[in-house]
């Protein structure tokens, strides 16, 4: 049986801030039981990822977001968006540079397998997307908060699962 929680870190670790999700995945490795949390690292989302969503209670998508305007976005800002189970085709308010969005993956899982796990998209606003393996200072400084946010989501999911089992 797969882990109840799936974390999907995607982006390009060789394009500076686009690698923030992979960095988070590295930090999260070993923090959770493998029977509770599975972490995937991908360069981009694809339709076959929908297969990985079966039998999951929570799916967390991690990615970097491009800065779109000085007035709207601040490098290092962490954004959370829950994909609605009622309408998983709805897109989050941020612009994704990847061809296949988390909402599309959730929609495929619903269509193919009849499942719609709770899904959270977490993006970190990036600043530098050129070639390189180092994060910009703003994104590097946001990494500990990003890890804390993910740990909190995992803990909440465990707490909710325990409460659900106790009430049955």
Descriptive account of the structure:
The chain is an alpha/beta fold and 168 residues long. The chain has a single domain, classed as 3-Layer(aba) Sandwich (Rossmann fold). It is 31% helix and 20% strand. The protein has a five-stranded mixed β-sheet. Helix 1 links the parallel strand 1 and strand 2. Helix 1 packs across helix 3.
Keywords:
168 residues, 3 helices, 20% strand, globular
Helix count equals 3
Helix percent band:
25-40%
Structural class: alpha/beta
User: Which strand order do you get reading across the main beta sheet?
Assistant: 2-1-3-5-4
- The end-to-end span amounts to 21 Å
Name the shape in a single word.
Answer: globular
What is the tally of beta strands?
5
Please, what is the average pLDDT? 86
Taking pLDDT < 50 over at least 5 consecutive residues as the criterion, the unreliable ranges are 87-97
CATH superfamily: HybD-like
Summary of the model, kept short:
The protein is an alpha/beta fold. It has 3 helices and 5 strands, in the order βαβββαβα.
Task: Produce the secondary structure layout.
Layout: E1 5-10, H1 20-28, E2 37-42, E3 58-65, E4 78-83, H2 102-113, E5 118-125, H3 137-167
Parallel strand pairs: 1-2, 1-3, 3-5
Antiparallel strand pairs: 4-5
């Amino acid at each position: 049986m797969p882990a109840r929680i799936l974390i999907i870190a995607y982006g390009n670790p060789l394009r500076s801030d686009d690698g923030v999700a992979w960095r988070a995945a590295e930090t999260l490795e070993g923090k959770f039981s493998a029977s509770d949390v599975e972490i995937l690292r991908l360069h981009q989302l694809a339709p076959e990822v929908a297969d990985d969503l079966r039998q999951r209670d929570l799916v967390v998508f991690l990615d970097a977001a491009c800065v779109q305007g000085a007035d709207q976005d601040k490098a290092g800002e962490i954004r959370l968006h829950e994909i609605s189970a009622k309408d998983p085709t709805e897109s989050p308010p941020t612009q994704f540079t990847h061809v296949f969005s988390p909402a599309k993956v959730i929609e495929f899982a619903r269509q193919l397998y009849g499942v719609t796990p709770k899904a959270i998209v977490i993006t970190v606003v990036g600043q530098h997307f050129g070639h390189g393996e180092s994060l910009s200072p703003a994104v590097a400084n946001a990494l500990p908060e990003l890890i804390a946010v993910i740990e909190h989501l995992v803990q909440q999911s465990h707490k909710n699962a325990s409460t659900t089992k106790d009430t049955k």
